[in-house]
Amino acid sequence: MRPSYFSPKEVASHSTLKDLWVSYLGKVYDLSSLAETHQGDVLLKPIVLAAGTDISHWFNKKTREIKTYIDPVTCCEQYYTPNGRFIHVPPPFPTDDWANDFGRPWWKDDKYCVGVLSQKTRRIKVINTLTSQEVIIEVCSEETMLEILRRYLKENRHAGSYTWKYAGRNLDMDRTLEENGVKDDDEDFYECRMNDDQFVQAIHLYFNDDLTES
């Protein structure tokens, strides 16, 4: 099954105790249920403070485990948690008040994963030739045109009743923008020190005869 892609801005919009997302090591996780289960626990605080952000720096990229260090006092390996110990991280010293019967730690539990963090987002202008409406939306470069269409539904619930075109050519809805020949010019604009806000690739929608609601 193809994963859902999310932009950093989308992750950042989920930054409350009851709607808590984070991203790390290229994936996006919804920790809302974890936060609800541990509400009031002081060990939840570092996670709440990181809500809506990327926490890849918490992890060793090779092992995908929480980073560790050697404690200079005990000479033992400990988890490196500069913002404070958090849920499922054991205490630095043996204690009888810490329950370790929770199973897999949250950072290894795939049930929290909701999708993939986009490596590159881009803006496109969608022009409805029937109504002359122009909308600029941010999309994930990995998304197919069909997935972009679904993003656009909030602007036009009949988006599925249009033929999507670029430069007069019908777009293959199962391919990405790049695969359809819609080049991402961000790097060119950067190298030329030009403001890319002045030019956004335009997709034109041509109305068909039906009123399909996708």
Descriptive overview:
The protein is of the alpha+beta class. Helix content is 14%, strand content 23%. The chain has 5 helices and 11 strands. The strands form 3 sheets. The chain has a 5-stranded mixed sheet, covered by helices on one side. A 4-stranded mixed sheet has the order 1-6-3-2. A hairpin with a 2-residue loop joins strand 2 and strand 3. It is elongated and about 70 Å long. The two termini are 20 Å apart. The mean pLDDT is 91.
Keywords:
214 residues, alpha+beta, 11 strands, five-stranded mixed beta sheet, 5 helices, single chain, four-stranded mixed beta sheet
Question: What quaternary form is this?
Answer: single chain
Q: Total helix count?
A: 5
Strand order of the largest sheet: 8-7-11-9-10
- Strand runs, count: 11
Low-confidence runs of at least 5 consecutive residues: none
> Main beta sheet: strand number and arrangement?
5 strands, mixed
What fraction, in percent, of the residue positions are helical?
10-25%
Intertermini distance: 20 Å
Strand content: 15-25%
| Cα Rg | 22 Å
- Bulk shape: elongated
Mean pLDDT: 91
